[in-house]
Amino acid sequence: MQGRLIYLMGPSGSGKDSLLQAARAPLEAHGCRFARRVITRSAESVGEDALGVTPDEFERLQGEGAFALSWRANGLAYGIPREIDDWLSAGQDVLINGSRGHLEAARQRYPQLLAILLQVDEAVLRQRLLTRGRETPEQIELRLARSRKLQQEDRERTVILDNSGPLQQTVSRLLHLLDEARQCA
Ligand SMILES: Nc1ncnc2c1ncn2[C@@H]1O[C@H](COP(=O)(O)OP(=O)(O)OP(=O)(O)O)[C@@H](O)[C@H]1O
Ligand SMILES: O=P(O)(O)OC[C@H]1O[C@H](OP(=O)(O)O)[C@H](O)[C@@H]1O
Questions:
Q1: Which of 2, 96, 114, 161 has the highest CB neighbour count under 10 A?
Q2: Which domain covers residue 34, as residue numbers?
Q3: How far is CA 130 from CA 41, 122, 140, 143, 170, in A?
Q4: Is residue 79 part of an annotated ligand binding site?
């Protein structure tokens, strides 16, 4: 049986990386795999364990068909390595850090994907992004504006996960909803 693609998305600063890190051990214990993203951002940058490449390297990899999914946002290019298809074919669930802007294209390639939208209100988001300090205040405002624009899309087929409270609470909710989804599959 084919594994399920779990597509975690949400505004910049909603806590996707934090949640992926915190939920990783318990989910791996259930056989779930995690994709390491390829991003045209320096490897030293704060945040997830992504592979940082130059725009030229990204183009080359894309041309070679190295990505199962790829998109551009916030002035960066993002790729999800093709190996997720091997994991899915082997029946393993795969969790990825996705983009709301790319959800429709991702659904076309993976019709069974489970979309989870991580949600936090805008004042909290702004504060978290400023505290994280990875982007300038101007870049943060652009990210918040992008979030507002994407807010209404594809709500009815998306599971909402609130991350306004403590991270551990969100981890427990994620594990619970993935259990439920497994039982419905
Ligand atoms: N539940 C939480 N409570 C308090 N702070 C949190 C919580 N979740 C995440 N944070 C903090 O918010 C900031 C943004 O989180 P994180 O980098 O995980 O977001 P992200 O959604 O991955 O953002 P981006 O898409 O821009 O990479 C981090 O500094 C993180 O420590
Ligand atoms: O705004 P949307 O389309 O949801 O997401 C755009 C991209 O921005 C964020 O990346 P990061 O903040 O650079 O890590 C997300 O992880 C996503 O890949």
A1: 96
A2: 5-184
A3: 19, 12, 8, 12, 21
A4: no
Is residue 162 marked as binding?
no
Q: What is the predicted pLDDT for the residue at 181?
A: 79
> What ipTM, to 2 d.p.?
0.91
For 51, counting Cβ atoms within 10 Å of its Cβ (0-12 exposed, 13-18 middle, 19+ buried), the class is middle
Q: Ligand 1, from 7, 17, 173: best to mutate by most atoms within 8 Å of Cβ?
A: 17
> Quick one: tokens of 11?
């505004």
Q: What is the CATH number of the domain that holds 13?
A: 3.40.50.300
Ligand 2 site residues, Cβ closer than 6 angstroms? 9, 12, 16, 47, 73-74, 76, 78, 97, 99-101, 146, 150
> How many structural domains comprise the chain?
1
Measured CA to CA, the distance from residue 14 to residue 123 in angstroms comes to: 11
14 lines ligand 1 (CB under 6 A): yes
Nearest atom in ligand 1 to the alpha carbon of residue 135 is 26
Instruction: pLDDT band for 116, please (50, 70, 90 cuts).
Output: very high
Task: Tell how far CA 45 is from the center of its chain.
Answer: 17
